[in-house]
Design brief:
Bound molecules: fe (ii) ion
Largest sheet: none
Strand content: under 5%
Shape: globular
Order of helices and strands: HHHHHHHHHHHH
Distance between the termini: 70 Å
Length: 326
């Protein structure tokens, strides 16, 4: 199927409207959806929750009140798990965004609903795990969820279909890495296993959107390059609205769950390299400007990441010295 781009004076000769792009990409979506359904394996969240550890809380049932000593999960694990869970909790907002952008019809619609169903299991699984193992304060968690969801979530990229696709390609990988590293630092092998399962779902989501972005780069190279440059240079995690996010993010960065080095090396670069974004030829003047902007930004980010690593090493060394002295 070939759909000619719209000749629009405001968009230049290569101006594709969102509607036309969505139509032009429908076949790719169908192919990628079928590939996804072929490789995604069913898994059961309840199998990763140690229900035998669960018991009544205080309040209605008069059980035992929550206490930080009750769980083996590390302090870093707790902070990261809460950020990851609250991020997953805002699924109604994300669903609204992509259903509005991509539509609920045809292959796009099937993907939107399937993706939502898969994402739904992440919040369910993490919450069940945290409550059964008493890893976090349930009252604080519920209040944070109410506050976070009441704010809703509005993507920075809702104005453009290509920006949305570029954002989710990077964001799904960011989520994957964040779940995976949280599991590694959680201090609980079952939690690690659960988060590895979730991370695997996120990886398949990333592959779907990355392949879609690849097709978009072929169809509308200059516009796609502009979208990638804008998204990479303005990237924010969807959890940025969580109460106390800045403080949590600093702990998460220092602990090595998610920081500038990880963002550059494990999130941005793998997608950019796979799509050969920096070597991509056949660009017009607008695409070349965007590609150049991206190159300058990535160099700057690498420098910032190096400075962060120096600060991180110094802070951790000081902390270690204090521990040894005490
Ligand atoms: Fe998720
Ligand atoms: Fe995902």
């Amino acid at each position: 199927m070939t759909i000619a781009p719209v000749q629009s004076p405001s968009l230049g000769s290569s101006g594709w409207t969102d509607t036309r792009l969505i139509l032009a990409l429908e076949e790719v979506v169908e192919k990628e959806l079928n590939r996804h359904l072929g490789v995604a394996k069913e898994w059961m969240p309840h199998e990763f929750v140690p229900w035998s550890q669960g018991r009544d809380f205080d309040g209605v049932l008069g059980g035992e009140a929550w206490n930080v000593e009750q769980s083996q999960v590390t302090a870093l694990g707790r902070v990261s798990l809460v950020v990851n869970l609250l991020t997953e909790d805002n699924l109604p907002s994300y669903h609204h965004e992509i259903a509005t952008m991509f539509g609920r019809e045809g292959a796009w619609g099937t993907w939107v609903h399937r993706w939502t169903a898969e994402e739904g299991r992440h919040g369910i699984a993490i919450r069940d795990f945290l409550l059964a193992t008493r890893a976090v304060d349930p009252v604080e968690l519920e209040r944070a969820r109410m506050s976070h969801m009441s704010e809703g979530f509005e993507s920075d990229n809702a104005h453009s279909m290509l920006h949305s696709v570029a954002y989710v390609a990077f964001q799904e990988l960011a989520t994957r890495i964040s779940h995976r590293n949280t599991g590694k630092h959680a201090g609980d092998p079952l939690c690690d296993q659960l988060l590895a399962k979730i991370a695997n779902d996120e990886n398949l989501h990333m592959v779907f959107y990355r392949n879609l972005l690849k097709a978009a780069l072929e169809i509308a190279p200059d516009q796609a390059m502009r979208a990638i440059a804008d998204v990479v240079t303005n990237f924010r995690m969807p959890g940025h609205g969580i109460p106390g996010f800045e403080r949590a993010a600093a702990q998460i960065a220092l602990g090595g769950v998610y920081n500038l080095r990880i963002h550059h090396d494990d999130v941005l670069q793998p997608v950019l390299r796979h799509l050969r974004v920096m070597e991509f030829g056949g660009l017009g003047p607008e695409g070349l400007v965007a590609q150049n902007e991206l190159g300058v930004f990535l160099d700057g980010l690498d420098t910032q990441a190096r400075k962060f690593e120096e600060r991180q090493a110094a802070l951790l060394a000081r902390r270690e010295a204090r521990r040894n002295a005490g």
